[in-house]
Amino acid sequence: MNAGRKIIIVLMLCSLLPLQAMANGVDYSAGFVPEAPKGFQAISGQDFEICYGPGSEGDIDEVADAASAAYASVHAFFRGAPFHPTIIVASAHEEYEEILNAGSLPEYSVSSGWGDGSRSAIVIKRPDAVPNFRVAMAHEMAHIATRSYIRGYKYALPEWFSEGLAVYVSGDLPGAKMGMVEDNCVNGTLMSIDELERVHRLSATDNVTADRVSLAYMQSGLLVKYIADKYGNESLLQVMDHFGPIGDLDSVFSSVIGDTPNEVNFQWQKELKRELDARDGRILEQSVHGYVVDHHGRPMANETVSFTALRNDSPVQGTVYTAVTGEAGQYSANVTYGPLKVVSEKPEYAGFNDTITVDRGRSMFLNVTLNGTALEERLAREKAERDRRNMILGGSGIAIVCIMAAGFVYIRRRRSE
């Protein structure tokens, strides 16, 4: 199992072991917040506190650097929402389990975020045990910041949105994982909102596969990114502002975004599918047109022009598009976008071989010239040779006639004598 996929399975631990707290006279679900074991040392700072045991002393500088960078970016996104987490560094897996008081956890469990505000904690293994340590730190801080920002039902936020937001804010959208999302999009197997929620809630169990969990995190992150790209980061904050008092994300989406989560998910998948179809050449929104002419500019009918896709970012690479000229020498071909190799050949003509670049959604006019100078020169030489021979043969014929005529005159004269 890929370590990058395994890491995300345990990010849901923050939703386990709920306690109850009172806020403004209303019951809200609050998360269990772990504490550092006895004997751990603590370094307190303005934004966070780091607790560590003897086995993690050599990692503190790296932990502090990662935490500082994560806090700065997350704090800025959430517009200064107050939170002051305690970062507890576990030197080994057994220590990680002990701090979480969670019994037996899989070895690939590496980090988790708990609580909100000043009553919050991040439990994370030492850096060399965590793939993408800085991203993992930012992801957990984003969870704490989300709950710190929301006023009210902060623990009722649906998992798909909470995890998607943490993925987006932490920048955990690696290109290496995009292929998985793209394949599922093309095959029509991306998840509905209900299925995303189900997979996230089961992510720390054996009831879903690691691949399914990895897809859920990527899809949730990309869906939140789609909302941010289309409506701005402000829209995400507005969703949380409106969610806190009522705890109903569908209603909030309808009022803030104008569509329900299901409708936004459908639209995102539709746009992604069209983008992939255009990228991979299943939809051709570009064209190249023009004339095939000879070196005198005369149109040439029934000539073939081929266009070979050179883009190496999709299966479209190597695809060949062809067009044949009509009686007026005109051609038109629908092609993919990007660099294309253009070839047109005709026996005894200097063919056309060039590379062009067609912009996305645009058309291009391109005249193709086939140079027949060499053919014309050969034909001219052959004609000159024929003319020379004909001249020689013609001269020989006249000479023969003259000789025959002279002979005839000579014979007549002899007979008359």
UniProtKB/TrEMBL annotation:
<dbReference type="Pfam" id="PF13620">
    <property type="entry name" value="CarboxypepD_reg"/>
</dbReference>
<keyword id="KW-0472">Membrane</keyword>
<keyword id="KW-0812">Transmembrane</keyword>
<feature type="transmembrane region" description="Helical">
    <location>
        <begin position="391"/>
        <end position="411"/>
    </location>
</feature>
<dbReference type="InterPro" id="IPR008969">
    <property type="entry name" value="CarboxyPept-like_regulatory"/>
</dbReference>
<dbReference type="InterPro" id="IPR039568">
    <property type="entry name" value="Peptidase_MA-like_dom"/>
</dbReference>
<keyword id="KW-1133">Transmembrane helix</keyword>
<dbReference type="Pfam" id="PF13485">
    <property type="entry name" value="Peptidase_MA_2"/>
</dbReference>
<protein>
    <recommendedName>
        <fullName>Peptidase MA-like domain-containing protein</fullName>
    </recommendedName>
</protein>
<feature type="domain" description="Peptidase MA-like">
    <location>
        <begin position="127"/>
        <end position="272"/>
    </location>
</feature>
